[in-house]
Every structure is written in C-alpha cells, then in structure tokens.
Design goal:
With 145 residues, this protein is α+β, with helices and mostly antiparallel strands. The protein contains four helices and six strands; from the N terminus they run βααββββαβα. The longest helix has 21 residues.
Length: 145
C-alpha cells in the first residue's frame, strides 16, 4: 500500500527558513534508511506558501486563483514522503522515526488504488490511466538519462 506522509508547516518554514546543515544531514540519513528498506518512492520539501497559489472553484465551477501566503501554518504542508509499505502501522512506524524535532507533525494518508473506485472506474478509464502512467514513466526515464 502507498501512503503519503505530509510534513506540516510551522511559522519558521512558512517564513522561508531553510534547514540547518545538521537538519539536512539528519533528513538525508532518514531518507537513506527509507531507500535501503525499499519503501521510499518520492520525497521533497516544499517552498513556503508565499510562493504558492490556490485555485478555488465557485458555484459556477469558475476557477478563482488566490495567491499565497496562506494562514494557519500548522494546517499547511512543508514537505512529504511517498512510501510503499505493507500497512498503515508500518507507515506510522516510519513517520515516528522522522527527524522533525519538538513540535513536528506528520499526517499520514493512504493513496487510493483502482480497486477503491469500484464500478466508477470503467475498463476504458482504467486503460486511459494506465497509458498516462506508462507515458509518465517513459518521460521520467528519458529525463534521467
């Protein structure tokens, strides 16, 4: 099962503060453990919301763009890991090992699979999804050369 582990923002990350050398070393060591265990698919830190935007859709489905920054830092995301593990409990175990320090917070969410969508995901839609994923995998492969 895949889980997305969101690292919650705080006032420092929202102010654009970057990690110290020691914090980066600790995070690199943690990421290396995830990779060696064969569970890490992706992970990155995110820029503060002052560099971001939100797209809201009104009652007529018209998109409205709202530039950051956004409030309530604790409800925002500062980074993430995408992991593939055997259970929610294993994802929680990994999150508990993250070097976030006092006040750090990680939210863990399961990534839905085709089976979760039942009959709504028709064979045609499933095939289209598979084609898009294959195309993206080829694109990534080409970029890595």
């Amino acid at each position: 099962m895949r889980y997305l582990m969101f690292v919650k923002s705080d006032e420092e990350t929202e102010a654009g503060a970057l990690p110290t050398e020691q914090e980066l070393a600790d995070m690199t060591a943690f990421n290396e453990r995830l990779v060696k265990a064969g569970v890490m698919i992706d992970g990155n830190g995110l820029a503060p919301t002052s560099e971001g935007a939100r797209v809201l859709f009104d009652e007529h489905n018209t998109p409205i763009v709202v530039d950051g920054p956004f409030t309530k830092a604790k409800d925002l995301v500062a980074g993430y890991w995408l992991v593939e593990v055997s259970s929610r409990e294993e994802a929680v175990e990994w999150a508990c090992r993250a070097p976030l320090g006092p006040g750090g917070q990680i939210e863990i969410r399961r990534v839905l699979t085709d089976e979760n969508f039942g009959d709504s995901l028709t064979p045609e839609l499933k095939e289209a999804e598979a084609r898009m994923r294959d195309a993206e995998a080829r694109r990534r492969e080409e970029l890595s050369r």
